[in-house]
Amino acid sequence: MNAKTEMMDRQPEINTQRDVYQVDALSANNNAPAMADRRPAAKKLPKKKRKCMDYVRKTIPSIDWLFLNYRWSEDFAEDTMAGIAVAVLNIPQGMAYSILGNVEPTVGLYMAVFPVLVYSLLGTSRHISLGVLSVLCLMTGKVVTMYATDGTGYTAIQVATAVTMVAGLVQLLMYVFRLGLLCTILSETLVSGFTASVAVIVLTSQLKELLGVDVARRVGMMQVPHTFYDFADRFHTINWMTTAVSVTTIAVLLLYNKYLKERINSKLCMPLPIELIVTIVATVLFQVTTIAQDYDMVQMGEIKSGLPAFEVPPVKLFSAVFMDACVIALVGYSITMSLALLVAEKLKYPLDTNQELLAQGLGNVVGSFFSCLPSGASPSRSASQQTVGGKTQMASIVSAGIIVVVLLWIGVVFEPLPRCVLSSIIVVALKGLLLQVLDFPEIWRKSKTDGAVWIFTYSTVIVLDIDTGLLVGVVVSLLFVFVKGVLNEVHVLGRLPDTDLYVRLDLYGDAVEVPDVKIVRYAGSLNVINRYMFKRKLIEVTRAGYNDASMTMTVTVVDGKHATGGRRTQCVVLDMAALQYADASGVKMLSESIESLVSDGFDVYLAAVPDSSLEYVRCNNDVKSVRFFPTVHDAVVFRQCSSKKIQNLTYDSQSTKTPNGL
């Protein structure tokens, strides 16, 4: 037992004995052609032609999962429950977020039908719930405010549908050119800062409804500071009954979410729709009382029943809203894809980023004919669809069917509902986004770059505008990527005693330099921009610690058989394992730097050059005396063996000549 325990506690060891290799010898010993003899790879065999039906099934994924392979007996019951859960969330959220878009409350319910049905047939995510999204509704509402004025002759819904159509067409164009990966421009940090700042703008825009203050809605640059100034100036117009209802609604929702939600939901087959319950209770209360009329509270008013009529968006508005629609298309796709990828990674199924562009783009195009705003995936509804047990997009189809019933017969019952109740639901739904600001210290601690991107995006969106802030965030993010690609690092390495591991001397106190060998690690790209920085840093670290005498040593050249000269030279081993990319100017500067070191009395070895750059470096390197090694340890051992051989030859030569001199 003790022996077994001792064996388990023993530190694992690696014992390897092999020859020292140079790159060409390694290739020859493993039946690989030398770099100079390598030929371009043969052309790939033509792919097998795909049948027309294969393209159809790829373009319309529902042919497989719905019409051919859907498990009605196993999945339909769970999808139905998930669809019901999503529908009861869609009713209050749809009406509430329509306020952000400056359109009628039924528009949010339309968005829970038409884009959702299109996505369920064409999308590749099984669990995201498309429909109203606060960020997109707010951005669309800004455009509506700009163009839906008395002077233009366009109604709010006409401007909104024009934005939806153009956004959908942009997404379809991105699909045609296979730009699904374009969403990676918006990093997670940037999206976090952007959504957190948009939540502040949404909260600011809802103060009018929450407090009943008589102020005009601000849009454009500096809207948040101007809005707070307007509220301070018009605070005397506050409606105290509206404020009381808002505070009560927010308190009820927050207290339920914090203390009762988990307890109650754990005992139910689906989450309790607290938002819908609050909406129904408020509707009944103000239906049977005259509180709203007595205190001049703003109510929902007339709600149209039935489905919207087919109407083509005004084409003349397309050019005016084009830039805003492009931003909305990119933001909507990025947020939706981030959520879809998160769920897909958790549940282990694949996604097609380009197919998602087709599904969302066509969903927006179809929705624009039926009075819809640009749609996106909601985190709360998607989480509900997944946690309740939804298996496929059949849950979205069920949800859309329930919303159709609400539009046809039930929607009109919400006419007495005060708008402040819906604004309160919006504010509570934004709690998580508003609290993302508390994540900033942790983001800054982990990465100063990510922290800078987050704070730049957050502050510029709030202080300036949504579009301007997003543009600043993207520019700053790409600028950091560019700068990191240009910057390089040069470090001196040492060897950990009794190992073949070479680590940075400034990080590992036990590491020691190999005698007469300066090991230098280069990390980064080597290009036309940073080439002079590379040369300066290389010369600095290689010459550091050497006195003038060592720098004036004569060069020893080893031809494999004999040694010429009698003095020992210094050696520089360049560890190029972290070389990312090298262009012609960078390789030329590498050659000049090596030539400078050779002329100063150094032997130069290149170790661990990546395969992607090795042939290019060798073909464009004018210094012929450079040796290439697969690892740093090969280069060091080769150098040590060569030095011993030279010393032995020199000693034997001196011993032979000494008697003749006597």
UniProtKB/TrEMBL annotation:
Residue span, STAS domain: 507-639
Pfam families xrefs: STAS (PF01740), Sulfate_transp (PF00916)
Bilayer disposition of the protein: Multi-pass membrane protein
Cell compartment(s), UniProt: Membrane
Main location: membrane
TM regions (residue ranges): 81-100, 106-123, 130-149, 155-177, 189-207, 238-256, 268-288, 317-344, 394-414, 452-483
Keywords from the named record: Membrane, Transmembrane, Transmembrane helix
SUPFAM superfamilies: SpoIIaa-like
InterPro entries, per the entry: SLC26A/SulP_dom, SLC26A/SulP_fam, STAS_dom, STAS_dom_sf
GO biological process, one term: transmembrane transport
Gene Ontology annotations for the cellular component aspect, listed alphabetically: membrane
PROSITE patterns: STAS (PS50801)
CDD domains reported for this sequence: STAS_SulP_like_sulfate_transporter
NCBIfam families registered for this protein in UniProt: sulP
PANTHER family: SULFATE TRANSPORTER (PTHR11814)
Name listed for the protein in its UniProt record: STAS domain-containing protein
Organism annotation: Acyrthosiphon pisum
